[in-house]
Amino acid sequence: MGIPSFLLDIVPPELTEAEKKKGLTFQSPEVRNRFAVMGKKRVQESRPASLYLKDDAELLTVGNFEDHLSWVSEVDWIIEVVVEDLNLKRELFKKLVPFLREGTVISSNTSGISIQKMCEGFSRDFQERFWEPISLIRRDI
Known about the structure:
Helix content is 30%, strand content 13%. By secondary structure, the chain is of the alpha/beta class. Strands 1-2 form a two-stranded parallel sheet. It has a two-stranded parallel sheet with strand order 3-4. α4 links the parallel β3 and β4. The mean pLDDT is 91.
């Protein structure tokens, strides 16, 4: 069972020495998706476990914001988890907007930036889609 998910990250700014030795280029998916692959690996190796079942890692498809941003059009829920930088978060949201399908929920993993500031200047539709993770928890259970 489980929920298929995308894990997108930035494209690394440069090749590592190991990648150069392998003959990889900046166009190689192994290079372009390196940060997302590392994120998936951290999820798989975390203690306590982040996944209920180890096999659930197969539900995570890795990619990057430059080559795979259109995948956003396939999702029901976006959880933004970039570094705590208001401008960076807002720039990412601007890139997401053209790909959002109707009803997609947007939330942020931020701990200190106000949602109002993150949504400022975006359309009413975008703002109405934006949910704080805590508000997604059912209270009547």
